[in-house]
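Can you give me the bound-state structure? Components:
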Amino acid sequence: MRLLQPEDLEDIAVGAAVLGTGGGGDPYIGKLLARGAIQSHGPVRLVSLEELQDDARVITCGAMGAPTIVLEKVPSGDEMLMALRHYEEVTGDRVTAIMPFEAGGLNSCLPIVLAAQTGLPLVDADGMGRAFPQLEMETFNVYGIAAAPMAMADEKGNLAMVRTRSASRAEFIARGLCIRMGGQASLVNYPMDGATAKRVSVPATMSLAQDIGKVLRRARKEKTDPLSDLIVFLRTTHYGHAERLGSGKVTDIERRVENGWSVGIVTISPFGEGMPYRIRIQNENLVVERGSDILAVVPDLICVLDVDTAEAIPTERLRYGQRVEILGVRVPPIMRSPAALKVFGPAAFGLSAKYQPLGGG
Amino acid sequence: MRLLQPEDLEDIAVGAAVLGTGGGGDPYIGKLLARGAIQSHGPVRLVSLEELQDDARVITCGAMGAPTIVLEKVPSGDEMLMALRHYEEVTGDRVTAIMPFEAGGLNSCLPIVLAAQTGLPLVDADGMGRAFPQLEMETFNVYGIAAAPMAMADEKGNLAMVRTRSASRAEFIARGLCIRMGGQASLVNYPMDGATAKRVSVPATMSLAQDIGKVLRRARKEKTDPLSDLIVFLRTTHYGHAERLGSGKVTDIERRVENGWSVGIVTISPFGEGMPYRIRIQNENLVVERGSDILAVVPDLICVLDVDTAEAIPTERLRYGQRVEILGVRVPPIMRSPAALKVFGPAAFGLSAKYQPLGGG
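Here's the bound-state model for the whole set.
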């Protein structure tokens, strides 16, 4: 167990932006909310999966919606608490630990807010090991945990509980609710006990976000190459492999809100000769293509980073003329099993590309 | 109290189609479901508002969706029971009486199914006095009753509970859920006690539906003019006024599903000379225009009837060439107050027409 203090949040937000792979919502907002919550309620206890009691009542949480909408319809930080209280009232369950349902962006920070508000410990793990655009794209679901009962809330205090027979149906229905709640809402889902959480979660992703932030901060201070440092560091983690996929200038962005997601294509033209890179987006970066070559595809992480600082640029902040590096990161083995690839491999996104783990897997 | 038997259902369905004013879903399906439920579980006790205990726990129920979808995605009859059980489980409330939330079409018959399945009494009243396309268009809402907590279910067993601060927000969110449940779902809402139900409901609308059916059956048997008989009868009820607005042949139908409703315009050309009648539809018939004249507008009932039998033709069954009469019926005083007109008068549908009660009010 260690305490998360306000000074930890800067690194976490920087790292969460990288793990967000373009999505997960802008962590800047999440950082401000988390700082305010810790200042009001005191530091948050971060516990590892190993430290978690087997009989703990864990619930996972986060916001859903289109990141382009989150930019203008900022969460107040209270929606998740309303969703949790509603879940507890309706089910009679008493939650004893909080876990992010995704690692990345806003959704690494909002669970810190909830942990501070409730005084409950925050589990250093999640169900995506990155950000994904859909609620069923969770290792929890891959390894047999039900997404529902699920509680949702918006900033006006509208509340909904959903029970469904499958996680993909929960996603479909919750997305409809989310759209009617203005395109962005907060939720708690995947209730489970501590023993189960140990079996089905991607471990240590909050610490990973913080470590990524530290690496980039040190590189800035010591004037080393931040992307090289980041790649070296990532190869020491359970993700195991990271590499440069390309670099260039953003020369085109198609981006719209469709069915409650930010979708589109970003084109990056190399600084030298050669064909442009095209990245397909559904909240997150799904695939990088160059001509007919697939350079990387989900579930591996595709991160668009500022060429000077290696800080991640979320999809909703991409602009013409930005100079970027494209980083690829292989996901840990728990996310590459045949069962996992069925839930969040290329075919789950309607992509025909075959998944080849970066670095040979 | 009287018992509803299978032989009562024919008249109820015929009358419910008239009160449906084009919407409420095809009562033919509802009649079959209600007959099956009474045959399996025994007759249903129909109680008047006066007979209802003041401390009764009443909940209202019905299906929502686009009637054109209901034609192909027929309710199984079990969705409403799932919604009721879910409501009771989540709230801890124990319901002791069932009331339709609208009078008309399928939604006059589905509450009979639920009453038969549960053995609970059915209250002879509703909150619309007709069919309306939106959940907030209820005398319950007009007179201060909250629409939520509200439970919804679809035929696959997906369940949702919604809590909102206003009935119009409940409608908006539930409509989103309904769309994601395939465009048609069942729900229970507006929980209230018996004393409240007496104050805020439109009385005796189940009996009214049955009486309308009887009048038309007798006219067929005695070979009198069914529409004249119906108008004479309706003038003796608390609705107080009905009149022929026109007649002719259906010569054009524009009809589509939009935002979860069946919407469109039907054109009826008079048998003789003169301009055509145009009826605007949002599930129900909202307004009849002829040139620049408004012949009738919500909340008054606009019913398109077969020219020979005076049986109502729901909007989803309108076809080119049908020979029809257009009947207008004034709503009872509880539905014409300034507060009521705010909730379901012309402006609530985006119509600029001013409401003038048929027959001078």
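A couple of observations. The first strand of chain B starts at residue 2 and ends at 4. Chain B has eleven helices and 17 strands.
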